[in-house]
Specification:
Strand order of the largest sheet: 2-1-3-6-5-7
Structural class: alpha/beta
Number of strands: 9
Largest sheet: 6 strands, mixed
Distance between the termini: 36 Å
Shape: globular
Strand content: 15-25%
C-alpha cells in the first residue's frame, strides 16, 4: 500500500514569542513521530492588503505589518495540495501533546475538509454566550444567515480555523486558482477589507463561508483536536491532543511564562 504524503503547514511570521516557539517545536516533534513533513513559513509570501480606499480596518492593523494582513498568509498552504494527499494547517499557538495519535488518520479520503466546530466544544457557559453573539455578528447577515445552522445555544455551526485538515480533493474547489487568486475573489473583498461587522475578522470568516458555499464534504472532529485554552472547561484541557492558546494577549505575561502555563495542560 502506497504511503500517503502528508504535510503540516504553519505560519510564524513577525515578532518571536516563547510560547509560539514552544508550540511550533511540539508540532515539529509530532511530525517526526508520524513521518509527516513539517513546513513553517517564517516570511510573508502573499502579503494580502485591504483596499485603503474602502477598508474598515484600522490602519494600525495592517500598517504595522508593512501594509499587509498576515492573518491571510496561511492560505499559501493550498499550494501543497498539488503534491500531497493531505495537508493540515495548524496555527503557531497550538501545542501538541506528546504521544498524540495521527490527526490525518481521523479524516478518511471521502471528505474534503475537516475541522472542529466551536459550538460543539465543551466550552464554559460564559464562552458559549460569547460565541453565540460572535456568530450573530459574523454570519447572521441576510446573505449568509441561511448557510449556517442556528439550532444550538452556541449559535452558528462555524469551524475554528486554527486547525484544519484538507484532503487532496479540496483542491478542486479552488478551481485552478493560486492562493493569491483565491483570496482576491470579488466575493471575498468584504472580508479582506473588514467591512461592517468584519472589521476585526480573520481568514476564519472567509473560510467558513467558502466551505459552506462550496458544498464540499466535511468531517466534524472532536474538541480533542482543537482545545481552546480558557474557553473549554479546565478538566477537558488535559484531554485535548491539540491545545490552542488562541487568546495569547490575555494570558498572564502575554503567554511568555511558558513553564507556568504548561502546568495547566500537562
Amino acid at each position: 500500500m502506497k504511503m500517503k504524503k502528508r504535510v503540516i503547514y504553519q505560519v510564524y511570521v513577525g515578532k518571536r514569542s516563547r510560547l509560539y516557539d514552544h508550540c511550533v517545536e511540539s508540532v515539529k516533534d509530532y511530525c517526526k513521530a508520524h513521518n509527516i513533513e513539517h513546513v513553517v513559513q517564517k516570511q510573508p509570501i502573499l502579503k494580502i492588503k485591504p483596499d485603503v480606499f474602502s477598508t474598515n480596518r484600522s490602519k494600525e492593523s495592517y500598517e504595522k505589518h508593512g501594509g499587509f494582513l498576515p492573518i491571510f498568509e496561511k492560505e499559501n498552504a493550498f499550494t501543497y495540495l498539488k503534491t500531497n494527499d493531505q495537508v493540515a494547517i495548524i496555527d503557531a499557538d497550538i501545542w501538541v501533546r506528546p504521544g498524540a495519535s495521527n490527526i490525518f488518520d481521523k479524516v478518511p479520503e471521502e471528505y474534503d475538509f475537516a475541522g472542529v466546530l466551536e459550538r460543539e466544544m465543551p466550552t464554559t457557559e460564559a464562552y458559549t454566550r460569547k460565541i453565540a453573539n460572535y456568530t450573530r455578528m459574523q454570519y447572521g447577515m441576510n446573505q449568509l444567515n441561511t448557510l449556517f445552522d442556528w439550532k444550538h445555544p452556541g449559535g452558528a455551526n462555524f469551524y475554528n480555523m486554527g486547525m484544519m485538515v484538507l484532503n487532496k480533493s479540496f483542491d478542486k474547489y479552488l478551481k485552478g486558482q493560486t492562493p493569491m487568486q483565491f483570496l482576491m475573489r470579488p466575493d471575498f473583498k468584504v472580508f479582506i477589507d473588514g467591512m461592517g461587522n468584519w472589521k476585526w475578522s480573520t481568514d476564519q470568516t472567509l473560510l467558513n463561508v467558502f466551505v459552506k458555499e462550496s458544498g464540499m464534504s466535511v468531517k466534524n472532529l472532536s474538541f480533542h483536536w482543537n482545545g481552546l485554552f480558557t474557553a473549554i472547561h479546565p478538566k477537558y484541557v488535559r484531554e485535548a491532543n491539540f491545545v490552542h492558546f488562541f487568546l495569547k494577549d490575555k494570558l498572564p505575561n502575554g503567554g511568555e511564562n511558558v513553564e507556568e502555563i504548561m502546568q495547566y495542560v500537562t
